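Here is the promised in-class demo. Please do not try to memorize the tokens; focus on the logic of going from shape to residues.
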């Protein structure tokens, strides 16, 4: 297989959501479950805080189902057409979240690439600042169906389990998980994550974000080594989950400027030496709390961003959803749209997680959660988010 070119990896709609790596999106394609489930992973993020974003392809009896589409570059379409040759046509494209813009934006382009596929979207789609009709969001009106209202795709082979709707004030949170009964794979978009200490393999295509954050100062070179990749990954995990972790501070401006433009760092890749972070000694302890490795009883969790900004007043709704999942004995593992997959997961762990939440601290406001808490507070004060219980 030849390496994909820049043209094959081009994503022309990136200015709509200008995230790293912008217009060029390399894709890692992996077969997760032989002849049944494939993962298509890209990176996306803000200022090198890049995490994997995944589309999951399920082979149903009638053909292929795409769950949580990613930008359909030429490289992605070529791999999908190859799967179609062996397993049948793409029959369904599923957007299972009402709110995740990063999952919503690729849908119109993916739909155009597969004009015979039915597009399924979760109910309560919303746009900001203007509420636009679904057709204006680019969903093809003549072949778009709403999950739940219009049934569900392939219900004899897949179970669909909604989380929500939750009225957030600004919009509605609704996500629909999908259980493949054949393999026991539970597909979710954003509602559950499982984070490993090892950098995900998609970074092998582009380790730059890891190497950037592995450093302690802007004048340090970007050096590729296994230790630096892991160190950079753990720091990215902190930023991605807390936005501003409590184990960093911003150095004074003279110190920052003194590092800019040093030899070896005078490149856009190194952001010309601009690196406004100073890490405290306990940063690894803070990162370890987010990893599944230190917590085998709870291999998956609600991402802190969702816990603090979407569910701070809706713990009960999340617990109810976990209990619903825990009644599905077929569940064997989790395939989420971010981070690692597949992750072994069973009903015992789901029940345990739901029970833990009866007493565990929920959506805290101190320590690494401080920034998320202040965002939530500001949104409530501005009236953008409803403070009432959902
Ligand atoms: Fe997401």
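The designed amino acids, position by position:
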């Amino acid at each position: 297989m030849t390496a994909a070119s820049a043209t094959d990896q081009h994503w022309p709609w990136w200015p709509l959501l200008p995230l790293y790596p912008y217009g060029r999106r390399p894709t890692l394609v992996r077969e997760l479950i032989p002849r049944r489930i494939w993962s298509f992973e890209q990176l996306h993020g803000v200022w090198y805080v890049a995490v994997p974003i995944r589309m999951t392809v399920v082979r149903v009896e009638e053909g292929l189902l795409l769950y949580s589409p990613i930008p359909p570059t030429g490289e992605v379409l070529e791999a999908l057409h190859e799967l179609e040759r062996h397993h049948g046509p793409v029959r369904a494209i599923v957007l299972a979240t009402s709110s995740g813009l990063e999952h919503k934006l690729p849908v119109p382009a993916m739909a155009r690439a597969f004009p015979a596929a039915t597009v399924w979207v979760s109910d309560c789609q919303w746009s900001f600042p203007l509420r636009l009709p679904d057709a204006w969001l680019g969903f093809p009106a003549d072949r778009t169906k709403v999950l739940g209202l219009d049934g569900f795709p392939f219900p004899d082979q897949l179970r669909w389990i909604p989380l929500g709707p939750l009225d957030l004030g600004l919009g509605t949170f609704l996500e629909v998980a999908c259980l493949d009964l054949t393999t026991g794979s539970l597909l979710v978009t954003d509602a559950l994550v499982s984070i490993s200490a090892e950098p995900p393999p998609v970074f092998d295509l582009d380790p730059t974000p890891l190497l950037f954050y592995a450093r302690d100062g802007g004048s340090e070179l970007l050096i590729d080594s296994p230790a630096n990749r892991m160190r950079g990954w753990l720091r990215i995990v902190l930023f991605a989950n807390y936005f501003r972790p409590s184990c960093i501070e911003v150095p004074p401006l003279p110190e920052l400027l003194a590092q800019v433009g040093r030899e070896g760092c005078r490149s856009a890749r190194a952001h010309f030496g601009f690196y406004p972070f100073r890490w405290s000694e306990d940063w690894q302890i803070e990162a370890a709390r987010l990893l599944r490795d230190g917590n085998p009883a709870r291999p998956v969790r609600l991402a802190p961003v969702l816990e603090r900004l979407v569910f701070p007043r809706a713990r009960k709704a999340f617990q109810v959803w976990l209990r619903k999942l825990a009644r599905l004995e077929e569940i064997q593992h989790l395939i989420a749209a971010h981070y690692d997959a597949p992750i072994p997961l069973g009903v015992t762990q789901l029940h345990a997680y739901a029970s833990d939440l009866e007493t565990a601290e929920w959506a805290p406001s101190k320590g690494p959660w401080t920034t998320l808490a202040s965002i939530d507070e500001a949104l409530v004060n501005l009236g953008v988010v409803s403070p009432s219980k959902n």
